[in-house]
Amino acid sequence: MKRYRSSEVWDFEMASPASSGSADVILGLDGSASDTVCVCISAAMPSFACRLDAPLPVLSRAVSGCSNHNSVGETTARETIEKVMAEALWKAGSNRSAVRAVCLALAGVNHPSDQERTHYWLRNIFPDHVKIFVENDAVAALASGTMGKLHGCVLIAGTGTIAYGFTEDGREARAAGAGPILGDWGSGYGISARALTAIMRAHDGRGPQTLLTYEILNMVRLSSPDELIGWTYADPSWARIAKLLPAVVSCAEAGDEVANKILHDSVLELSASVKAVVQRLELCGQDGKDYFPLVMVGGVLEENDSWDIGKEVIDSITKIYPGAHPVRPKVEPAVGAALLAWNNVTRKNYVSNIETDCDMLKCF
Amino acid sequence: MKRYRSSEVWDFEMASPASSGSADVILGLDGSASDTVCVCISAAMPSFACRLDAPLPVLSRAVSGCSNHNSVGETTARETIEKVMAEALWKAGSNRSAVRAVCLALAGVNHPSDQERTHYWLRNIFPDHVKIFVENDAVAALASGTMGKLHGCVLIAGTGTIAYGFTEDGREARAAGAGPILGDWGSGYGISARALTAIMRAHDGRGPQTLLTYEILNMVRLSSPDELIGWTYADPSWARIAKLLPAVVSCAEAGDEVANKILHDSVLELSASVKAVVQRLELCGQDGKDYFPLVMVGGVLEENDSWDIGKEVIDSITKIYPGAHPVRPKVEPAVGAALLAWNNVTRKNYVSNIETDCDMLKCF
């Protein structure tokens, strides 16, 4: 594999070098299956800023495309991550010499070897004193809903989907998040791929007719279901397929039975992921009624006036676990990533479980 | 898109040019989702050679990798096709000047634009007088079971799956064959991907424990289900995933419920494809009992002592359509492709429907 290293993205540092006394900063990066967001926050942020009601000192924000190495390949993923980090620093009027910590929360980080590979690469970009954290993107998403406290369960459903949970004493568990080939059927990609399949089945006589045919062909400007085959395989990006989601929701709202079944099945899938995590971690306690935050993140779960997938999932979960407390985060996962790094670097005791279980946030 | 054209594969023609009187030949090529086979037959083959009991004058045979442009991309697909055609001619001691017709039967040919693009490219390889036919690979597979007669229904289930049928008066229909994203769940790939999904679900608590975990991890030499994620996405080839099929069959034979359900579901899927084609073409006649050949092709449908997917599909079809006559072809689909071209070029009336409906075999 070619090892990507682009020095050009850092050229701005030579053009306007930061002074030796420039304020320390922390980078938080969220790399989901559809895009990559990097924020730069002040490392000098006082601890009260982490309260739920306090404004956050986000100095800058940069956005780029997908950085899931399983989707776009490792070279493109690294190129995207490096570019977006450089842009965030440039926008903040800072540079690498001021960075105290970086937390990369990435979809596609599923195994310690994924973390180690990414860390090894990052070590060539940042000086040795910079603390580096590499996590699955779900960890930052949870932190974004709890303002840094790693407790509860997060459900992400955007292009991909994953459920991830932490107990207060630092145990963790996940469900799904293995990408479309390995059964993430409740995701935006999964819903859209099932809608495309329903069109093909209606077309060749294996399935009932559906409004999806008209709606999706119209959306992608094709005239026949046969043409969908070429369209689908011409570009392997999962995010592109997932963008068909609004057409599925719109057909379901219009009463189409096929679209309704696809969305109901996605609710079952997403709920099953949350239940698996809650059960394994016993987040609901012995009596099944303990309080825990249920953080809901991603386009599939956004509030919607009529067909609200997120609300259906919440209803399904709270019926079994009345202590589940749904949270739709007010800050984005990239800020959650930055808060995780900030908590660790400043050694505040705000997130006490970080101190007690070093496995929860692996620092390289 | 880069247009591939490799002159080197034809260098052998300069080293040993064929004499002007060298015997005319026909090339038949079958490009499935897992490999590409090209045979060279004599164009002077007497018509009786097409009888089911006569030996066929196959002069040579060459094999290469996958040439489905939806799976490996158009550049690789063309490189593979050109190489395998050159090798077949070289092995037959022939060359392009002796070719009278070429029939390419390719998985991934789903639309007239796919045919036209491939034809345009082939025109740069062969002289103008060479007749060129480009078809979906299912058409050649049907012909391989009927020795050239385009009547009945073929079911292919290897890496991918498709059902394709022709009536005696030249109408045609297909079902499935749209690749894994668009729901070819009964294929070798579909079965294997569901097995991988079952492993992930057992691992994270969403599904029951299964023997598949041990069997498949052992087969791909990994120690944990988490590692399957990297393994799956490291190589996007569908054929690689489909190779897990024997492990699924072996678990089902050992009584594993999860594996058994996956195979039973694949039987339902494959049967649904055949039924859709038979119904649309009314191959079973008004009374539902008319005779028609049901040609069964591909690794998933191969005879098996215990868990025999092909037999289950046949049982399911003949229960509804008693006139369905199952055929496991004695020649391979590449020979079927060559026979289709031979029938057309020699203008024998062996396949009468080719004469009556030019749409059945589009000659460019």
Automatic annotation (TrEMBL), chains A, B:
* Residue intervals passing through the bilayer: none
User: What EC number(s) is this enzyme filed under?
Assistant: 2.7.1.59
Organism's domain of life?
Answer: Eukaryota
Pfam family for this entry, one: BcrAD_BadFG
State the name under which the record lists this protein. N-acetylglucosamine kinase
Per the UniProt record, the source organism is Zingiber officinale (Ginger)
Residues of the ATPase BadF/BadG/BcrA/BcrD type domain:
27-341
UniProt xrefs under PANTHER family = N-ACETYL-D-GLUCOSAMINE KINASE
UniProt enzyme class: transferase
Cross-referenced InterPro entries:
ATPase_BadF, Euk-type_GlcNAc_Kinase
GO molecular function (one):
N-acetylglucosamine kinase activity
